[in-house]
Design brief:
The complex is a heterodimer of chains A (211) and B (188). Helices cover 35% and strands 18% of the residues of chain A. Chain A is α+β, with helices and mostly antiparallel strands and 211 residues long. In chain A, a hairpin with a 2-residue loop joins β2 and β3. The radius of gyration of chain A is 23 Å and the shape is elongated. Chain A has one domain (48-201). Chain A has 3 helices and 5 strands, in the order αβββββαα. With 188 residues, chain B is mainly alpha-helical. Chain B has one domain (3-187). The mean pLDDT of chain B is 85. Classes of the chains: A alpha+beta (211), B mainly alpha (188). Chains A and B meet through α1 of A and α4 of B.
Chain lengths: 211, 188
């Protein structure tokens, strides 16, 4: 025990751990701002396409409202609503919801609605549908057909894919996926119609989103 | 570091001991992210840089590290390097980071890296260890890119290629091709 091997080993380990921690800390300091900016830019970039024809002057990703489960929106997990304003008055609400009846796992959707409940855009954030079949829901042409639609247009059963007597295009070889998306958009519209007051009731002045 | 040993390193890393084709190490990321060429390139470069720096650090500390604590030290070094790589990808290559997702942090579990630390870097001088990291990393990265490019091309006619089974078929074909080439050389 002359040179205390355990102690020496422990000291070496501690020294290396300290150096490694310092390395990670420095890298974090150097990249933190950029990472934050990238996340914000990505959010705005993915929210913008569903705001066709809406005029607004607030930041898009800033004012959000988390709706914790259970709720009547599509999806079992918490839903998110981004509120967009023109001056002090509401301009649009963007819903992040999940369609549950897809072929393979939840389909995360972003649905934009203007204040009168008309769809301003749809985009698919995340899905695991079959490549080449169900993934046709990614196509902007397919998503375009929802723009301008509302609970009054079309009415009742027409809010379905063509095969089910509705007026929305299905995809060749895949009806499960588009059916799930159409249903989720309809449920979002119904939720909006029933809860319109509550959605814009809180925080008229945009509050900063918390991290 | 003579020219001969350097040539040996290159031949071994890129062909005879290729981490993916021969040692079959790091197959999880290899199979998971190679659905496109760009993904293969991104993960290849990330793995290559972690492997090179980790080899350099392990080799330069090898005199002070006692045999009993070498494994926790490799783990510490590799884990910190991977965390830094992940932060750098998030800051400067956000699009690539999104498509590689969890597989950047999972480089830490790539056995090719700890294997090179144990087999090579802990027994060889710094310069040679860095070369070994560069070459082994390139061997792995080239394989990732080749499989990514192959799957992306074949997927135009045969959809299965981008699905998970396609990864297994492509890797099997690559290994078979390598063995076939080696055998032909052997017969000559």
């Amino acid at each position: 025990m002359a040179d205390m091997p355990v102690l020496r080993g422990g000291m070496t380990l501690a020294a290396i751990a300290a150096i490694c921690t310092a390395l990670v800390a420095v890298t974090f300091e150097l990249t933190d701002d950029r990472i934050e900016k990238n996340a914000q830019a990505w959010l705005e970039q993915s929210l913008l396409p569903v705001l066709a024809g809406v005029s607004f002057d607030s930041g898009i990703g800033e004012n959000r409202l988390a709706i914790s489960a259970p709720h009547e929106l599509p999806g079992n997990d918490d839903a998110m609503i981004y509120r967009v304003y023109a001056g002090d008055s509401p301009a649009a609400a963007l819903f992040v919801v999940s369609a549950r009846d897809g072929y393979s796992g939840p389909i995360r959707l972003l649905v934009g609605l203007d204040t009168s409940g008309i769809v301003t855009g749809l985009s698919v954030l995340e899905h695991r549908e079959t490549p080449g079949l169900g993934d046709g829901i990614e196509s902007p042409n397919w998503q375009e057909q929802f723009v301008g639609k509302s609970l009054e247009n079309p009415v009742g059963n027409r809010w379905n894919i063509r095969g089910d007597g509705g007026e929305f295009d299905a995809l060749t070889g895949a009806s499960v996926t588009p059916r799930a998306v159409v249903k989720a958009v309809r449920e979002t519209l119904e939720y909006y119609a029933a809860n319109r007051g509550i959605i814009f009731a809180t925080a008229n002045a945009p509050e900063k989103a918390t991290k | 570091m003579t020219a001969l040993t350097l040539m040996d390193r290159f031949r071994n890393g890129l062909w005879y001991e290729n981490p993916g084709l021969v040692q079959l190490l790091g197959l999880c990321p290899l199979l998971a992210v190679t659905s496109t060429f760009v993904n293969g390139l991104g993960l290849g470069i990330a793995t290559l840089s972690v492997l090179t720096i980790s080899n350099g650090l392990v080799s330069s500390t090898r005199q002070w590290i006692r045999q009993e604590i070498r494994i926790p030290i490799y783990v510490l070094i590799i884990a910190s390097l991977v965390t830094c790589t992940e932060l750098i990808f998030k800051a400067w290559f956000p699009a690539l980071d999104r498509s590689l997702g969890i597989f950047i942090p999972l480089i830490v579990t790539n056995c090719a890296i700890v294997a090179r630390a144990e087999i090579f870097a802990s027994r060889n001088p710094v310069g040679l260890s860095i070369v070994d990291g560069l070459v082994m990393g390139s061997g792995f990265a080239l394989l990732l890119m080749a499989i990514g490019a192959f799957r992306e091309l074949v997927a135009m006619g045969w959809l299965l290629a981008v699905l998970p089974p396609g990864a297994f078929f492509s890797l099997a074909l690559a290994i078979a091709a390598k063995n076939w080439i080696d055998q032909r050389k052997h017969h000559e």
